[in-house]
Design goal:
Blueprint lengths: L2 E3 L9 H10 L1 E7 L10 H12 L1 H7 L4 E6 L14 H9 L4 E8 L5 H17 L3 E4 L5 H14 L7 E4 L6 H7 L2 E5 L8 H11 L4 E4 L11 H11 L4 H17 L26
Parallel strand pairs: 1-2, 2-3, 3-4, 4-5, 5-6, 6-7, 7-8
The site of zinc ion has 6 residues, from loops.
């Protein structure tokens, strides 16, 4: 079984996670830039983070046989902080880099005017750079958040079929599917979607344009949830081809819209800017 986790924050995870993911079948990941859990105080703090997502983290993933790409953006929460919004002006020089396969994650957190402006600006950046967009839908007030998101996409010059709407659930899936966007589902322990609910959604809405991710980060989350969904699909009577479509071919097709997806894992030996994953240069 081959698995592509299209939304996971590996910066927050350990090498044990990489090992376990590879053993479970994960061969490719996309890491969206996001909120680090505490506010950043200046754009330079974002730039160091973006550089890590483009350099160190793909290097680290390669040690474990996993291809790593990223999506870059000013995240919805920090779009409200005037100390951070100058990041928008610097994004064009990052969006041309080979490892960037979408603009993201963008979207709404609290649905403020500042978030409106950042979302519109970044949808335009995606259109200008020939990139698709990964759009986070809000965790509170989900249906209203989805509709406001879709309005913003409609007003942009980015076509619906280059947008992945993420963190969907039973409340939002129908309208999201009707919009023509790609459909992303984050499967977490305890909260939000679980693997059985995910199987129910796949039964009701089919496998076309559906992506499943673990969205694992620094919070309570599980980087093996993609595999658990695959196993739950098989147990529920879906075929191996259905599993391959949802867990591999759909994310490959969506991020492939960037023209930059490289699924061969780079040579694992060597150094990244003089540093290895080994301590003390062993
Ligand atoms: Zn995320």
């Amino acid at each position: 079984m081959r698995i592509f986790d299209p939304h996971i924050h590996m910066t927050s995870r350990t090498t044990d996670d990489y090992e376990a993911m590879h053993a479970a079948g994960v061969r490719a990941v996309v890491e969206p830039s996001f909120w680090l859990g505490q506010p950043r105080t200046c754009p330079a703090s974002f730039f160091d983070y973006f550089d890590a997502l483009l350099g160190w983290e793909p290097f680290r993933a390669a040690q474990y046989g996993i291809a790593h790409h990223c999506t870059l953006a000013l995240n919805p929460k920090e779009a409200n902080d005037p100390r951070c919004t100058p990041v928008l002006d610097a994004l064009p020089r990052y969006l041309v880099k080979d490892g960037v396969v979408a603009v993201g994650e963008i979207g709404y957190d609290s649905m403020t005017p500042a978030e409106d402006a950042a979302l519109a600006a970044q949808l335009q950046l995606a259109a200008d750079h020939g990139l698709p967009a990964l759009v986070h839908t809000p965790h509170r007030d989900k249906l209203a958040g989805l509709h406001r998101t879709l309005d913003c996409v409609h007003e942009s010059s980015l076509p619906m079929d280059r947008v992945l709407l993420d963190h969907l659930n039973e409340t939002t899936v129908k309208d999201a599917k009707d919009s023509g966007c790609w459909l992303g589902f984050s499967v977490y322990p305890d909260t939000k979607m679980d693997e059985d609910r995910m199987v129910g959604i796949l039964r009701a809405y089919g496998t076309e344009k559906v992506l499943v991710n673990s969205a694992a980060d620094w919070g309570k989350s599980d980087p093996l949830k993609t595999r658990e969904v695959a196993d739950a699909m098989l147990a529920a009577g879906f075929g191996e081809d259905d599993v391959d479509q949802v867990l591999w071919r759909n994310p490959v097709a969506f991020y492939g819209l960037s023209g930059r997806l490289r699924l061969d894992v780079p040579e694992a030996n060597g150094l990244h800017e003089g540093n290895s994953v080994l301590r003390g240069g062993e």
